[in-house]
Amino acid sequence: MRFNNFWDYRRIIFSKGFASAVWQSRKNVLAYGQDRPLDAGPYMAELDVTYRCNCRCQMCQRWQDPRTDELRAEEYEALAEELHALGSHQISIAGGEPLMRDDVFDIIRSFSGRGMSVNICTNGLLIGKYHEQICRSKATCITVSLDGATADSHDTIRGVPGSYRQIEDGIRRLLSHPRSSRPIVRVRMTISNQNVNEMRAFYQKWDRVVDDVLFQPVHHCSEAYYTGMDESTLHLDPELIATQIKSTPLANDGYLNRLIDSLKTTGVFPRQQCYAAVLMARIDPWGNVYPCLEQHVSVGSIRETDFKTIWNSNRIRDERQHLAADRPCNCWYNNTAIIGHYGNLLEKTRLQSLWDLARHNVTCHVPAIISGKKYKTSL
């Protein structure tokens, strides 16, 4: 979960269990650095609840997966109980298109009902149909993927004519609910050479309309499902990105500036400490557990054993050591980047207690609230 505008995210930061989850995350980071068993579960778990999808995106092949027999709602209920007991706090409900599951709101409530922060990651086509159910699910946040400032760009990349207008209408319906009764609404544009020249227009279109506007680069990994785009489309021009964000608030965005600087100097995404299988984990629709959302090396299945056993197994410990010694992947997703950033801070910050952690948060955040300014993290 990326915090651009602190005021909009205060319901997460001040939610019950958030400070405790951050404290447990710090203990995990320290244990990982000392090669000890982890004290808690992952801070963030991404749950891909289905690979079925009503889009045909160029960069993704998940919608082509023919498998059935997805985890049932009662299996997610058991997982929610287990992750809550392990101290996990951030849950991402993703896919495929998660809103295509008839029981998706039961799944969401399994986690939100236990006080966990739930983000729905969606292509947006079904928001209009389900805007009332989304609000009643008590999801904390919804992230809508829009791949361009114009219908032509988005619909071409997503492979569904008319989808842009349908998504816009759905977002308007969701925003018609009082802020207190709806989730935080974010739009996110995955930038490639097909749409990078629309970043400024995209930001100007959605800023002050939704609660947050995000950008992230398209990814390519030989072990991932995001491999469908032509290779030339993946090589982003950092100068063009810099030009697009110049003279906008995005010019001070640490996440984008680190991306630009790294592309200029090395030609690849920024590299930072990876906390896969330490602060994050991913579970696919059939219960297979992976260290993070990018890597596709399964370390076990919750249909064969419980998550805690997998999380404390030698198999996942070996995978942590492998990633630390010879990481085969390099990502710059919004959520993995921010987790890496805060993981580094947690490792370096000398906090002795939950009281110190709370005092640290108040010192950092309250002045921004009092002044009425939007708080922006710096990666």
Give the class from helix and strand content and strand pairing.
Answer: alpha/beta
> From the alpha-carbon coordinates, what is the Rg to the nearest angstrom?
20 Å
Query: The biggest beta sheet, please?
Result: 9 strands, mixed
Q: In terms of per-residue confidence, which ranges show pLDDT below 50 for 5 or more consecutive residues?
A: 357-378
Range of helix content: 40-55%
List SSEs in N-to-C order. HHEHEHEHEHHEHEHHHEEEHHHH
Q: β content, as a range?
A: 5-15%
Mean pLDDT: 86
Strand order of the largest sheet: 6-5-4-3-2-1-7-8-9
Span of the ends, CA to CA? 13 Å
Shape category: globular
Count of discrete alpha- or pi-helical segments spanning 4 or more residues: 15
Strand tally is 9
Care to describe what's here?
The chain is of the alpha/beta class. It is built from 15 helices and 9 strands. The chain has helices at residues 6-13, 18-33, 73-85, 104-112, 127-136, 151-158, 163-175, 199-206, 231-234, 238-245, 254-265, 307-311, 314-326, 334-348, 354-371; strands at 44-48, 90-94, 117-122, 141-145, 184-191, 212-217, 280-283, 288-290, 300-301. Strands 6-5-4-3-2-1-7-8-9 form a 9-stranded mixed sheet, sandwiched between helices. Strand 7 (280-283) and strand 8 (288-290) form a beta hairpin. Helix 2 crosses helix 14 (334-348). The radius of gyration is 20 Å and the shape is globular.
